[in-house]
What does this fold into?
Amino acid sequence: MGVLGHLTSICCSARYIFGERCAPRPSSCAAEMPNRYVAARLGQGALQKVTTSRRLALMLLLAGVWGCQGSPSVEASPSVEVADSAGVRVVTIAGSSPSDTLRPRQLWTHGETPPEYLFQRIVSGVLRDDGSVIIADAGSDEVVRIDPDGGDFGILARTGQGPREVRGPRKVVTGGPGDVWIEDFSGRKLLRVDGDSITTVLSGGDNPPASDRLMPIGLDSAGRIMMTTGGYMPGWEEEWLMGALVVFDPDESAVDTVGAFQFAERVGDPPVFPFSGYGVVSVTPNLFVTGRTDIPEIVWRSSNGAISQIARWMAEPRYADDRDWAEFEESMRQNIEQMNPGRSAAEYDAMAERSLAGWALDKTQPVRLFDDIVGARDGSVWIAPFTALRSVATAKEWIVMSAGGEWLGVVEFRTSTQVLDITEELILGIQVDELDVQTLVVLENPF
It folds into this structure.
């Protein structure tokens, strides 16, 4: 997220279908980011604005643990202290905030006007080795392939109940040997893509993760599907609901739970604070990457569950204010209008009032530090800074951490961007115009 829930299972499932991670929040299913939020996702005192001017230094503490397969190696820079603790490689960085702001070059877009495919609600997408793109569109219930130059498209899976049709595509994942898998959430199926065709369909007893509310997030080098918790029922007693880290062998229909992470916090009756933390999970090659958005720490685990690296940084809390609440109210209203087209202004006002009744501003509570993480195929981790917006994680500036646990820099996009996938050469993202039209964008990876 870095990959962005509700207190009812119905709303929780809906938010996953529409691409937003569930967190325990009231049951209200319902721009560019101001500069002051660029670093608030990493902590107000830690980083208020990340630019080449180094206006405010960020003191970092990173602990690196190298171990299992897929763990990259790194040579410590002069600002890095390397130590060993109980067999664990510990890397402590006393450096400042990222010194470089990089602006990636845009290569192509798709979806602005016909005859290009007009997206309705993109929820997931990946870049393939040949540069083509596969997109899951939950609005149209279709899976779309875009050519490597962005010029033409084809439909891989149409809406329907046939074995190679979909009724709620939620995730597209790739990695490892280059396989691509599609998850049909409503159809409770996994579909493998080979070239421009679906060649394998797993359903029923051949798809045991569906019964466990699991969601694919990547592939390891052995072709196993790396999965995590994709939904939950409310009412647990523990302070935090633990999310599962799972590998699934599609050839053997074998499911192996290899780890867990703090996924969703138990909250009281509404109204509740809208800017609290939650668990996030992504993948880099052969590694699960997890974090809690209210704690300045990211953890890497191999696909067998062993911890391979931990990164920590110092972050001063920033407390919620009226401006946060105003932006939250505005984004809530916008989301309601998008989800319920064709209503009157009075109806939108009433719906927004009902939804906002489940939330309350508490100026004594700090906002979360970041919104989501996205693992890249070069091993880096992209961090979406905190915003008060009620939407998926999207930002104009993304903070990037290297595979070795050091800050790489800031990637500044032309406009606020939701990052879907990153390879060694390319970035795949979504940008939304003033009419709420989603456009797919592919850019050069500047690192």
Q: What stands out?
A: DSSP finds three helices and 27 strands in the chain. The chain has one domain: 9-444.
